[in-house]
Give the backbone structure.
Amino acid sequence: MTASRIFLARVAGVPVFDPNGDQVGRVRDAVARPRAAGSPRVVGLVAEMPMRRRIFLPIGRVEAIDAEAVVLGTGTLNLRRFEKRQGELLVLEQLLDRRVTVAATDASATVVDVAMEVDRSGNWSLNKVAIREYTGLLTRRGQLRQVSWSEVRGLAGIGDHHGTAGILALLHDMRPADLANALQDLNDKRRFEVAEALDDERLADVLEELPEHDQIEILAALAPERAADILEEMNPDDAADLLAELPEGEQEALLDLMEPDEAQPVRQLLAYTEGTAGSVMTSEPVILAPDATVAEALARIREPQLAPAVAAQVFVARPPMATPTGRYLGVVFFQRLLREPPSALVGGMIDSDIDPLSPEAPLGEITQRMATYNLVAMPVVDDKDRLVGAVTVDDVLDHLLPRDWRDRATVPVPAVPNG
């Protein structure tokens, strides 16, 4: 059974076992990633194998850990040699014996050990530090005590004392959702500075992961022309959701600043009633003509910018290919594409058994039908049999969850079961 707090110096050298009970190696260090505020998050352990080869063990693979052993859960073990990435922290190598300052007293101290703690969502963070504090009376040996990470100056992390460039360097490799969380940890001034420094595509990806009130505040802090550029980089459905929160005059002003071909699908989405398929769909699914080949279809769904739910199928329609298309014919799922020769035409493998949604279909109907047919996306077709978009499972979840579900201050954290 794993304790909720682990002092890392005490597990250095303990054996690591795979699920079969075979020893993989021994723990040599822990890898943490600084965050915009608060203590660094532990992302994995470094294990040393025979011949002094060191590998990375993601913390999610660790089934149990204590002072006797580390046990891994099932899964493939990546044997590639460990290399520390920019911004990562090797806890034992970089922190043990480091001279630090106790914030409350300005007393000098030395780091003796660092503890990681697990929260109720299962994430591990460096939250406690064992230090030897030197006072006027104990100058030779010092006093051992435990303090919180935030009580010590001189440890690794991101804070307001870092410049924007330093914060950007630490956040460089984060996924958009993680970067959005990091931005929420910053004060308003620093958040706007970081947002201003991000390029348009990166900022658009991050805005899509932020709560609505943060989206609006950041967009309002940008020059109108830059705000329009960011909206152009966003998925049309996300841009429409954001603009729907603005007063009508501000909506129209930003739409007028956007390129007409970028603004048009956003305008179309804004015209649908809230809570319907039309209001939550993406207007840019993968659409092909019936004479397109399997090779062309596979090339389209391999495009890296496509979300997995969008890339799970191609929709087939008569020209024109942009929504609203010509007559909708049906869908071809990617598993079918993988089974057919590259030269085969998608028009010969269309699945037309699933009735498409109408733009006015309510969320309850969408959810029920997607669950009934085990689908991750459904076509939306208007009364003229034209494909106008597709509703994906992430669109549905985004609108079924509470409006503030992305806000870290309000989202309830599930408890981790004992045992």
